[in-house]
Design goal:
It is a single chain. This protein is of the alpha/beta class and about 290 residues long. The protein has 2 domains: about 5-120 and about 280-290, Aspartate/ornithine carbamoyltransferase (Rossmann fold); about 125-275, Rossmann fold, CATH 3.40.50. Helix content is about 40%, strand content about 15%. The protein has helices at about 5-20, 45-55, 75-85, 100-105, 125-140, 155-165, 195-200, 225-230, 235-240, 260-265, 270-290; strands at about 35-40, 60-65, 90-95, 110-120, 145-150, 170-175, 190-195, 205-210, 245-250. The two termini are about 15 Å apart. Bound molecules: N-carbamoyl-L-aspartate.
């Protein structure tokens, strides 16, 4: 995605947010279009917001959960996609545990493929909704410093944000236990910290991530209690950032582990603003993918 493409999606998403994520809008630009939500991994926020986004644009939305699809009977992803394509959908929103899955099926698909999270690789609409939330909280991303903390190695959210936020003028600091930091991060020109305190010093915003238990190859940290003590965001650590710095988390939250209750529910938390921005961003993305605007 180029900076211009990102800015244009964010501007469109902002107009949807002004209409309460499309609730006040009479416009139905995707009337007569079909969107398939195909989720092979669990999801609360992403699946629901894509469904609402499609419906608020006037599209017919069909949800298919991977756990109830024929891949469970041995069908390959290619055959599942050939089948879905034969139904003439205009967009297929795909979440899959394999990194690169959307890139593999996209060339064979007539429908636009939207990546809703592929393994440990990327989660582009999450990064867009984070960028929108940050822009609304900070006024601009230009010249701002954002700390992303936690299990960076296994996080598609961290990877997509590490690409998008610098494109929009922000500086990104990555921070996590050595065992949860990608070796490539420094090579990409990102600042890397293996302690949370220096990473938080004077930052404009903080993004906390949960430990991706389902993707851990082995024990990469001693215990959740120990992790919380050394890496958890509490009030004391929050004070290291600039006053009023917004706190983001893509969810699901593991309260008391990477984020303490008082911070998750505190005045600086913008976690629910992220959810609201998610519907608006996904409306902008679906509209652009289906209508090619
Ligand atoms: C994230 C995901 O699925 O990658 N959740 C989300 O989309 N809101 C983050 C996570 O699962 O930790």
């Amino acid at each position: 995605m180029t900076r211009e493409e990102a800015l244009s999606l964010l501007a469109r998403a902002q107009t949807f947010l002004d209409e309460r994520a499309g609730l006040d809008s009479k416009d139905r630009p995707l009337k007569g279009k079909t969107v398939l939500n195909v989720f092979f991994e669990n999801s609360t926020r992403t699946r629901t917001s894509f469904e609402l986004a499609g419906k608020r644009l006037g599209a017919d939305v069909v949800n298919l959960a991977g756990s109830s699809s024929s891949t469970k009977k041995g069908e390959t992803l290619f055959d599942t996609f050939a089948t879905l394509n034969a139904m003439h959908a205009h967009a297929i929103v795909l979440r899959h545990s394999a990194s690169g899955a959307p890139h593999v099926v996209a060339p064979r698909s007539r429908a636009a493929i939207v990546n809703a999270g592929d393994g440990m690789h990327e989660h582009p609409t999450q990064a867009l909704l984070d960028a929108l939330t940050l822009t609304r909280a900070l006024g601009t991303l230009e010249g701002k410093t954002i700390a992303i903390c936690g299990d960076i190695l296994h996080s598609r959210v961290a990877r997509s944000n590490a690409l998008l936020l610098p494109l929009l003028g922000a500086k990104v600091r990555l921070s996590g236990p050595r065992t949860m930091l990608p070796r490539s991060a420094e090579a990409l020109g990102l600042e890397v910290y293996d302690r949370i305190e220096p990473a938080l010093e004077d930052v404009d915003a903080i993004m906390m991530l949960r430990i991706q238990m389902e993707r851990l190859g082995g024990a990469l940290f001693p215990s959740t209690r120990e992790y919380s003590r050394i890496w958890g965001l509490n009030e004391r650590r929050l004070r290291l950032a600039r006053p009023g710095a917004p706190v983001l988390h893509p969810g699901p939250l593991n309260r008391g582990v990477e984020i303490h209750e008082d911070v998750a529910d505190g005045t600086q938390s913008v976690i629910l603003n992220q959810v609201e921005a998610g519907v608006a961003v996904r409306m902008a993305v679906l509209e652009s993918c289906v209508l090619g605007s």
